[in-house]
Write a structure and sequence with these properties.
Layout (H helix, E strand, L loop, with lengths): L12 E6 L3 H13 L4 E5 L7 H4 L20 H6 L9 H14 L6 E3 L3 E6 L6 E5 L4 E9 L21 E4 L14 E5 L3 H13 L2 E6 L6 E2 L7 H9 L1 H9 L19 H14 L3 H4 L9 H18 L3 H7 L13 E2 L2 H4 L5 E5 H4 L2 E5 L2 E4 L2 E4 L2 E4 L7 H5 L3 E2 L6 H4 L18 E3 L12 H21 L5 E3 L1 H16 L30 H14 L5 E3 L2 E2 H10 L1
Parallel strand pairs: 1-2, 1-6, 2-3, 4-17, 6-18, 7-16, 8-9, 8-16, 9-12, 10-11
Antiparallel strand pairs: 4-5, 5-6, 13-14, 14-15, 19-20, 20-21
Helix pairs in contact: 1-16, 16-18
Bound molecules: ligand NA7.
Length: 557
């Protein structure tokens, strides 16, 4: 279709945004206030915050440093907000996002308590129809899925869960009024980043805690604490610098790999470096270690050995310590949990570890507790900390039907198919923020979120200026991108773990590395996306024809 044949839009909205977390809120602000679009936002929850609205389990806090876990697009906002701790707690982040919603007057354009259940593309009008569980049916030119990467809870189909007489909670669907563990026998299923935060907190309150571990984790101390006002002042004075550094960094943090092989160091030299990173706490040990950590098993083993020694030195009972030492995957190939007294908690008298490989896996949930390895553990409360159907789950749940009625779930049955993780062939004008095959969860999320929102905003601006109606990936560009994402991951140790990065935590999910590990980091990915736009959106089609053809046909007219 040429521009002249472009249907006049009678859409209810120019853009519909789904989700009022970090990404959706900025998208709404950006499209409405920078481009002047008529935008509405549907949010399933009754408040803003996304991840930080839902994840209210004890100990829930961010694992990124607070001074960079925030929006950086507004200089005044950066100056006026003060974080109290190195890693903000869930309620502090939620207060921050509430503040942003007020500050940018977002709430009048957010429809709370409405879950999007179907999104259908109309080939004739080239508009999307969006339906919610509350009966809304509205049309829009653009849809922006700001649905989060870790927002579809994974509640494994444990046999007998419905028969349990006590209460059970998934960590990401936590009651707003909290849960009182006083005098209760509690079971926690899972030992991922969430459980590592929750277990020490629950152990302090519960009468007894049983932890059901399927795979042990390498943990590094968070070293949380109050933010030194002098450091905070210095950072505020240098926020332009901070912003540039994180935007052009590898993972969206002020962290860089040690530019040498760990195998080229003496034991004394590397021990000193490991101690430094361990004492600093946070993601440095994971994301700023020796540069061959993710590529060479031999190098990785040297680094992993340090963490294994730490576990053995912390946990008093050597049998329990051995259960807690990871042995089946390279260090860093599962998401790094940051801990505060996690391993120490297993020294407490009221804490029991039930390890799937040595004590036996969970067999069923009974009316009175959990049966694992032939033994029943009596419980009053079960905390299910089993994570998420990461990256693809939230998008597959939207009921998306693109060109010709093709369902996204069918197209993606063997894994996600995108170009740059931003758009997919056959799904015009449906933008994804920090979706699969983009750096997303491998980065400090707000950095990647801002990059995507700004790229999408400029893309829509471009389309409007050039009177272009639809944009989508070409099948060729998409195929190449999917292969590229897999090739890069295949050159690392990442595929060796049964991680949610690989889709391995969900039974039946196709196994592949879901995020994009850009060899030049998030800075390189940003540059790549910008260059593609500068070259007239290479690899994309406008109005069903590639950019080159559009230009040629316009010239011919
Ligand atoms: P994760 O990291 O996926 O951890 C989930 C945990 O639950 C992990 O220990 C799993 O073991 C365990 N799990 C999952 N399914 C089962 C079943 N069926 N039986 C027993 N144990 C199970 O989720 P989190 O919520 O901790 O963290 C997710 C991200 O949220 C986090 O990385 C941050 O980015 C924020 P497994 O290791 O798969 O054997």
């Amino acid at each position: 279709m040429t521009n002249q044949q472009q249907p006049k839009s009678n859409a209810d909205f120019d853009a519909i945004v789904i989700g009022a977390g970090f990404s959706g809120m900025y998208t709404l602000h950006s499209l409405r206030d920078k481009l002047g679009l008529n935008v509405t936002l549907f949010e399933a929850g009754n408040g803003v915050g996304g991840t930080w609205y839902w994840n209210r389990y004890p100990g829930a806090r961010c694992d990124s440093d607070s001074y960079i876990y925030c929006y950086t697009f507004d200089k005044n906002l950066l100056q006026e907000w003060n974080w109290s701790e190195r890693y903000p707690e869930q309620d502090e982040i939620l207060r921050y996002l509430e503040h942003c919603a007020e500050r940018f007057e977002l709430k009048p354009d957010i429809q709370f308590g409405k879950r999007v259940v179907a999104i259908t593309f109309d080939d004739e009008t080239t508009l999307w129809t969006v339906r919610t569980d509350k009966g809304d049916t509205v049309t829009s030119r653009y849809v922006i899925a700001a649905v989060g990467s870790l927002s579809t809870a994974n509640v494994p189909p444990f046999k007998g869960l419905g028969s349990f007489k006590g209460k059970w909670y998934h960590t990401s669907q936590w009651p707003h009024e909290g849960v009182d563990f006083t005098a209760k026998r509690v079971g926690v299923i899972g030992t991922g980043a969430t459980a590592v935060q929750a277990i020490p907190e629950i152990a302090q309150q519960a009468k007894h805690l049983t932890v059901f571990q399927r795979t042990p984790n390498f943990c590094v101390p968070a070293r949380n604490g109050k933010v030194d006002p002098e450091i905070s002042k210095a950072r505020k004075a240098d926020y332009n610098g901070v912003r540039e550094r994180i935007k052009n960094s590898f993972f969206g943090f002020e962290l860089n790999f040690i530019p040498k092989s760990v195998l080229q160091t003496t034991p004394e030299e590397r021990e000193k470096e490991f101690d430094r990173m361990w004492d600093d706490g946070g993601f440095g040990f994971w994301l700023a270690n020796y540069q061959d950590m993710f590529f060479s098993k031999e190098a990785n083993d040297v680094i992993a050995d340090y963490l294994k020694r730490k576990i053995r030195a912390t946990v008093n009972d050597p049998v329990v310590a051995e259960k807690l030492v990871p042995k089946t995957y390279p260090y860093g190939t599962k998401r790094q949990p940051l801990d505060t007294n996690y391993f120490e908690t297993f020294n407490k008298k009221n804490v029991l570890l039930v390890d799937a490989s040595t004590d036996g896996p969970i067999e069923e949930i009974t009316p009175n507790g959990i049966r694992a390895g032939g033994k029943e553990y009596p419980l009053d409360i079960i905390v299910i900390a089993t994570g998420f159907d990461a990256l693809t789950g939230p998008l597959k749940n939207l009921g998306i039907k693109g060109r010709g009625g093709k369902a996204l779930t069918d197209e993606w049955k063997d894994g996600p198919l995108t170009y740059l993780g931003l758009l997919a062939a056959g799904f015009p004008n449906l933008f994804m923020i920090t979706g699969p095959q983009s750096p997303s969860v491998l980065s400090n999320m707000p950095v990647s979120i801002e990059q995507h929102v700004e790229w999408i905003t400029e893309c829509i601006r471009y389309m409007r200026e050039h009177k272009l109606t639809t944009i989508e990936a070409t099948p060729q560009a998409q195929e190449q991108w999917v292969a590229h994402v897999a090739e890069i991951a295949g050159a690392t140790l990442m595929p060796q773990a049964n991680s949610w990065y690989m889709g391995a935590n969900i039974s039946g999910k196709s196994r592949q590395f879901l995020p994009y590990l850009c060899p030049e980091g998030v800075g390189g990915y940003r540059k790549k996306c910008a260059e593609i736009a500068e070259r007239g959106y290479e690899g994309f089609m406008f109005d069903g024809v590639s950019r080159t053809e559009t230009t040629e046909s316009r010239a011919a007219e």
